[in-house]
Amino acid sequence: MRKLILYVDDSECTRELLKTIFEDNHPDYEIILHETADGALNDLQARQGTPGFPEAVVTDLHLSYRGDDGLRLVQQIRTRFPSLPLILVSGMVRSSDLERARASGADSIVEKDMNMQTFANRLFDLVQCPAGVPRRCSSV
């Protein structure tokens, strides 16, 4: 069975492109796509305790659909699934974003690179962190 990563982004183009590039380069992974925080939370709840539970969740910092917010999503997931790796992504990461990411419970925040291959590789490196290794929110 392939390892799963749940990816939440309100941009359909970004979701589909990342999925294609990531899965083409890392065939042992499958990216589960969601447009909204609610969809992602419902999916996680349904997958809890099953072999289909994701290895990590990656979410856009600024989700525009119905006022969703990536930080709020991270907080909700951290409360329900404390050990699940959580990675925020943003088009531009400012120092205030890093502080907000730490406060929300995110493990890392990654700037979306215009080169989707580079972006996918950064996410892969973060997901590969061994289980049990202390995680600290950092900007990559």
What does this structure look like?
This protein has helices at 12-25, 37-47, 70-80, 95-104, 116-127, and strands at residues 3-8, 29-34, 56-60, 86-90, 108-111, 138-139. α1 links the parallel β1 and β2 (29-34). The chain is built from five helices and six strands. A six-stranded parallel beta sheet has the order 2-1-3-4-5-6, with helices on both faces. It has one domain (3-139): Rossmann fold, CATH 3.40.50.2300. 29% of the residues are buried. The model has no long low-confidence stretch (mean pLDDT 85). The protein is of the alpha/beta class and 140 residues long.
Secondary-structure blueprint:
Blueprint: E1 3-8, H1 12-25, E2 29-34, H2 37-47, E3 56-60, H3 70-80, E4 86-90, H4 95-104, E5 108-111, H5 116-127, E6 138-139
Parallel strand pairs: 1-2, 1-3, 3-4, 4-5, 5-6
Helix pairs in contact: 1-5
- Number of helix segments? 5
Report the top-level CATH class.
Alpha Beta
- The N- and C-terminal alpha carbons lie at a distance of 29 Å
Name the CATH superfamily assignment.
Response regulator
Characterize the main sheet: 6 strands, parallel
CATH fold-level label: Rossmann fold
Rough shape? globular
For the record, the count of structural domains works out to 1
Beta-strand level of the residues, as a percent range? 15-25%
Proportion of residues in helical segments: 40-55%
Rg (CA only): 14 Å
How many individual β-strands? 6
In the CATH hierarchy, the architecture is 3-Layer(aba) Sandwich
Mean pLDDT across all residues, rounded? 85
pLDDT < 50 runs, ≥5 residues: none
* Strand/helix succession: EHEHEHEHEHE
Q: How do the strands line up in the largest sheet? A: 2-1-3-4-5-6
Q: Kindly name the structural category.
A: alpha/beta
